[in-house]
Design brief:
9 helices, 36% helix
Length: 337
């Protein structure tokens, strides 16, 4: 039986799960979190999260126990590096020194890992340089996640930053759709992740990151706009937004938030086009909870110069829970090991 992983993307407002094998997505699931369980990506009550994950697995009939979890950005250091060609043992020795200006504690207190996403050869065809995606995280942070997942009946096998999850997703896509003979260079991708507290724009050249942009506008601003307009609690406003209760998604206040997000996305893409005039980016793949808001996607589509497409185009066929693909895409990337 092929090895399966349970990808976990624990956000500020929901948990996303993806059960994946090497070439397939078997199951997707999303569950909204209670208030005050996660803040700024940090899990405030690991014991409560363990119970939540255990109940979520039971509800969605998830038997896979080997977990690949996405780490919040404020607990992991992530860098894209170019280093001289060297062996794995040499990389293990040298990698901590690449983070010496970023980590605040003794280097031996951290785990380090990397993925090779590019290589330059010399005139004789021998490796000369490696392009790496590299990460460092405190060992105590990994221990906390391992304990939390253990109490949920899971085994922590992989922990990675979100950028690595997207890189995994693109690697799997290109393995299924290899470059044709007429394609002179690596493909380019743009992933627009519209989340609860922020929106993230990731631009990749193959698996290499060209640009990552965090836009401090997310769907929580839509909740706040609806709450203020209707004089209701933001939690209730969120329900109005999700169900489009009495046209909540197209209120003037909601449309104003969409416009603010669209303008920032447009500015980021225009900047990328200016800095990379020879780019061959063909479309923007959108995902995240905000991708479920059709008026928001329409507003972004009108503002940017590239066509928009759902991120499901980059994924293999999905078994159960395909309706959650827009929310679970990062979890799929985490599980594609």
């Amino acid at each position: 039986m092929s090895k399966q992983y349970l990808g976990l993307d624990i956000g500020n407002s929901a948990v996303k799960m993806a059960v994946c094998g090497p070439d397939a997505v078997h199951r997707l699931a999303v569950a909204e979190l209670p208030e005050n369980m996660v803040s700024g990506g940090r899990i405030l009550s690991p014991a409560s999260m363990s119970e939540f994950l255990r109940d979520m697995r039971r509800e969605h009939h998830v038997s896979c126990r080997d977990a690949a979890v996405i780490l919040p950005e404020d607990v992991v250091f992530f860098r894209q590096l170019v280093v001289p060609a060297m062996t794995a043992d040499q990389l293990a020795i040298n990698l901590p020194y690449e983070f010496r200006d970023y980590i605040s504690r003794e280097k031996d207190l951290y785990f380090y890992d990397y993925a090779v996403v590019g290589r330059t050869d010399d005139e004789n065809g021998a490796p000369e340089q490696f392009e790496l995606l590299a990460a460092a995280v405190l060992k105590e942070t990994i221990a906390d996640y391992r304990d939390m997942l253990r109490r949920a009946g899971l085994r922590l096998r992989v922990a990675l930053p979100q950028e690595m999850a997207w890189s995994n997703l693109l690697r799997a896509y290109e393995a299924r759709h290899p470059l044709g003979e007429a394609e002179e260079r690596e493909r380019e991708y743009c992933i627009l992740d519209i989340g609860h507290t922020s929106t993230r724009l990731h631009l990749f050249h193959g698996r290499k990151i060209e640009m990552s942009k965090v836009i401090e506008h997310g769907c929580s601003l839509v909740d706040a706009a609806i709450a203020e307009t209707r004089d209701i609690d933001e939690h209730v406003a969120r329900t109005h937004k999700v169900t489009d209760h009495e046209g909540a998604q197209t209120l003037e206040a909601s449309l104003s938030v969409y416009s603010a997000i669209a303008i920032e996305v447009m500015k980021a893409l225009n900047f990328h086009s200016y800095e990379h005039r020879d780019n061959r980016l063909e479309r923007v793949h959108y995902c995240g909870g905000g991708a479920l808001l059709a008026p928001l996607i329409d507003t972004i589509a009108q503002a940017v110069h590239l066509p928009l497409a759902p991120i499901g185009e980059l994924l293999p066929e999905i078994g159960s829970g395909a309706e959650d693909v827009l929310s679970c895409a990062a979890a799929v990337g985490a599980a594609q090991q």
